[in-house]
Amino acid sequence: MVRPADPAPVAVPRHYLMCRPAYFAVDYAINPWMDPAAGVDRDRAIRQWEGLRDLYRSLGHRVSEIAPIEGLPDMVFAANGALVVDGRVYGARFASAERTPEGPAYLDWFRQAGYAETREPKHVNEGEGDFITFDDVILAATGFRTEAAAHQEAERLLRRPVVTLQLVDPRFYHLDTALFALAGDRVAYYPGAFSEGSRRVLRSLYPDALLATEEDAAVLGLNAVCDGRNVVIAAEAVALADRLRGLGYTVHPVELDELRKAGGGAKCCTLELRHPRV
Ligand code: ARG
Question: What is the domain range of residue 261?
């Protein structure tokens, strides 16, 4: 049973980092969505990405941009570039050789932007793709990309408890393809993406969670971004969108199917910059 969100969802302005897909391509395959033989329409990817960026701005959010680097086709997926909590930056260390140079590139951006505490990671982790931050806890995944040892590393640096979850379905290789944060400490997730033990953990932490279906998950509907009231979500996730409306959220469907050819959606393109609380 899902109770109506209570109190009414309220939007909180965010600061996001994004990377224009100027060099977007699918010329290697590191997840089951990627088919190098299928080809992509880069101009279309850019138009879809611009639509997402402009939507955030129209919702009152601040968007910063990191310059894309030629030869790094997945750099558009800014969520993987770092994890930022209270202004502290935990750098990414990618699991694949193809994406490895993105880690230092994102850390450089943070240093140049004046972030005082930036940490080069010891352990493999793919940034906010595998870490979802709440006020008093961070959910972190392992199984395909991020190592469990990175969860501890992040917990020490960011000084928030980290709960480890196990991903088991290769289509949902990052935590942000299977779960997203709603208002307050509410969540939506697809149970089938998680191990039996992790499902138990999620049930006890979030008894009121919105449980998504496989159909919702298979169009990357869980790769959504919520500011507390607005939910930016894959246009194809119609059933999930309807349920969110029923809970009082304002839903903004976005067409990002060109980027989905690389296995990414709205959330993947979006790294939240969480400044220190004042
Ligand atoms: N092709 C990219 C990869 O497999 C997609 C990353 C999507 N990002 C995300 N946060 N889920 O690494």
Answer: 15-272
Catalytic (active site) residue 252: no
Pocket of ligand 1 (CB under 6 A): 30-31, 34, 74, 77, 79-80, 99, 129, 174, 176-177, 262-264, 268
Q: Is residue 9 part of a domain?
A: no
In a domain, 6, yes or no: no
Beta strand 210-211 with 138-142: parallel, antiparallel or unpaired?
Answer: unpaired
CATH number at residue 137: 3.75.10.10
pLDDT given at position 1: 52
* Buried/exposed 126-135: b ≥16 CB within 10 Å, e otherwise: bbbbbbbbbe
The ligand 1 atom at the shortest distance from the C-alpha of residue 30 is: 4
Cis peptide before 7 (omega within 30 of 0): yes
pLDDT tens digits for range 95-127: 999 999 999 999 999 999 999 999 999 999 999
Has residue 48 been placed in a domain?
A: yes
Domains of the chain: total: 1
Catalytic residue check, 268: yes
What's the confidence (pLDDT) of residue 278? 67
Average pLDDT over residues 44-54: 98
